[in-house]
């Protein structure tokens, strides 16, 4: 579906009449940090043919606004973390609390326990009060101090709870399922004409959220995945015809597998959900692996968990609580197939199977992700204080932008098989098209 400019318009709770306490500038060149005005936009497609005028949609830039919707003294904010863990969750919680308290002077901040369940008094635990002191050193630890869970709640119950607690800003930190939930909450808020801002912050190691070049946590997960690949390479090289087989997270998108493959530089086959591969036949994985072993006596294969699902005879039914389709185990399947094939071909092989699984996402954030967390969190606070709602903080060409939740959710971002990342993976692995 073709996107239209009007779909990128950001919803506001109402007129902004409160002067921001941030004391920034509107004068360029005065060496004082500037407010961002609503009419500053970023082209969706910055590439343009020489001589041609740019023809593109534009996204609203994120950043501090000179006038706010909420008087800081009247704000009661709440933060919820949902879905699977992701490095940097605690950094985001900390930066939201610090920005609200130190810079805007907001003292009432709640931490919602265990995802959206904590917004349903019949299911969740009571919220905890957050302040800068409590969160001062949480960014050194992986996980989320608030706890998390998968699955939505009835938005009517959630909004009833927010209203009864006097919460007027809700920060929803999570992946696509969480942001769909945030959109449903914002719609219910609008239906009831309540002054509650709902702002989403994109989180997933899979890096599959639209309008977001990189979600926080992705690069940390890639670094962890790279060390698993490097160990698999050591194992593979140490025996005759060793095969290091590494399964990595990535349900519908192969960003972790592709980026870790590139970072490691030791991978011969990188299998991702976006590109179905063949197992059998002259050009299939098994025959290619045999050639590789004949030539180099070892090989490294990286497979994203969502790759090759078409090859599995048996797959679990249904979806998890976030609505993600349950996957069959491609890792064990490949291991068995390689052993069986090599046995039949009379090729000795030793498969060393690595499944780093949750290890790549339960660690604390590396510097690159810590930096992203700070940027996302502070932009989310600026947006909320300005009364922007039903909005996701996106990252487009390294600029933070506002994206309506309605257009950023529902369909996940996937790796572009014609793009630079995948072409680099093909170059570094030497892998041909299936
Ligand atoms: O959603 C991100 C993700 O890391 C996926 O890659 C992975 O399949 C999933 O989480 C597993 O999480 P859980 O077991 O907690 O549902």
Topology:
Elements: E1 11-12, E2 18-19, E3 41-43, E4 58-61, E5 67-68, E6 76-81, H1 89-104, E7 108-111, E8 128-129, H2 155-165, E9 169-174, H3 176-191, E10 197-202, H4 218-237, E11 242-248, H5 255-264, E12 269-271, H6 285-296, E13 298-304, H7 330-345, E14 350-354, H8 367-385, E15 388-389, E16 391-396, E17 399-404, H9 405-408, H10 420-429
Parallel strand pairs: 6-7, 6-9, 9-10, 10-16, 11-13, 11-14, 12-13
Antiparallel strand pairs: 1-15, 2-5, 3-4, 4-17, 7-8, 16-17
Helix pairs in contact: 1-8, 2-3, 4-5, 5-10
Task: Provide a descriptive summary of the structure in words.
This protein is an alpha/beta fold. It folds into 2 domains: 5-47 and 55-215 and 365-408, 3-Layer(aba) Sandwich (Rossmann fold), CATH 3.40.50; 218-362, Rossmann fold, CATH 3.40.50.460. Helix content is 31%, strand content 17%. It has 10 helices and 17 strands. The protein has helices at 89-104, 155-165, 176-191, 218-237, 255-264, 285-296, 330-345, 367-385, 405-408, 420-429; strands at residues 11-12, 18-19, 41-43, 58-61, 67-68, 76-81, 108-111, 128-129, 169-174, 197-202, 242-248, 269-271, 298-304, 350-354, 388-389, 391-396, 399-404. The strands form 4 sheets. A 9-stranded mixed sheet has the order 3-4-17-16-10-9-6-7-8, with helices on both faces. A 4-stranded parallel sheet has the order 12-13-11-14, with helices on both faces. Strand 9 (169-174), helix 3 and strand 10 form a beta-alpha-beta unit. 6-O-phosphono-beta-D-fructofuranose (F6P) is lined by residues 83-84, 175, 204-206, 249-251, 305, 320, 361.
């Amino acid at each position: 579906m073709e996107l239209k400019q009007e779909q990128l318009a950001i919803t506001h709770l109402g007129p902004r009449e409160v002067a921001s306490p941030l004391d920034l500038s509107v004068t360029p060149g005065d060496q004082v940090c500037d407010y961002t005005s609503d009419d500053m936009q970023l082209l969706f497609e910055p590439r343009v043919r020489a001589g041609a005028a740019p023809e593109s949609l534009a996204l609203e830039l994120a950043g501090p606004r000179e006038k706010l919707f909420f008087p800081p003294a009247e704000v009661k904010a709440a933060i919820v973390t949902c879905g699977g863990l992701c490095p940097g969750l605690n950094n985001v919680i900390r930066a939201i609390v610090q920005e609200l308290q130190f810079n805007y002077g907001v003292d009432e901040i709640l931490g919602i326990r265990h995802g959206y369940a904590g917004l349903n008094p019949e299911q969740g635990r009571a919220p905890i009060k957050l302040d800068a002191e409590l969160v001062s050193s949480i960014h050194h630890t992986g996980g989320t101090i608030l706890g998390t869970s998968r699955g939505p709640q009835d938005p009517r119950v959630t909004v009833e709870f927010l209203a009864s607690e006097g919460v007027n800003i809700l920060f929803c930190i999570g992946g696509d399922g969480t942001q769909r939930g945030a959109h449903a909450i914002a719609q219910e808020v609008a239906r009831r004409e309540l002054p509650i801002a709902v702002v989403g912050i994109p989180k997933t190691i899979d890096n599959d959220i639209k309008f977001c070049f990189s979600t926080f946590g992705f690069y940390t997960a890639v670094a962890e995945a790279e060390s698993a690949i490097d160990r698999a390479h050591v194992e593979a090289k140490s025996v005759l015809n060793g095969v290091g087989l590494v399964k990595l997270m990535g349900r519908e998108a192969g960003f972790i597998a592709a980026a870790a493959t590139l970072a490691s530089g030791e991978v011969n086959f990188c299998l991702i959900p976006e590109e179905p591969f063949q197992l059998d036949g002259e050009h299939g994985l098994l025959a290619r692996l045999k050639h590789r072993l004949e030539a180099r006596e070892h090989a490294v294969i990286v497979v994203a968990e969502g790759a090759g699902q078409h090859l599995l005879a048996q797959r679990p039914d249904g979806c998890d609580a976030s609505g993600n389709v349950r996957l069959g185990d491609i890792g064990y399947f490949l291991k068995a197939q390689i052993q069986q094939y090599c046995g039949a071909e009379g090729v000795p092989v030793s498969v060393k199977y690595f499944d780093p699984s949750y290890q790549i996402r339960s660690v604390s954030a590396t510097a690159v992700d810590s930096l992203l967390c700070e940027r996302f969190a502070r932009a989310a606070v600026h947006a909320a204080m300005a009364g922007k709602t039903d909005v996701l903080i996106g990252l487009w060409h390294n600029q933070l932008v506002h994206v309506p939740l309605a257009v950023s959710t529902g369909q996940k971002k996937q790796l572009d098989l014609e793009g630079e990342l995948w072409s680099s993976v093909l170059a570094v692995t030497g892998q041909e098209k299936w």
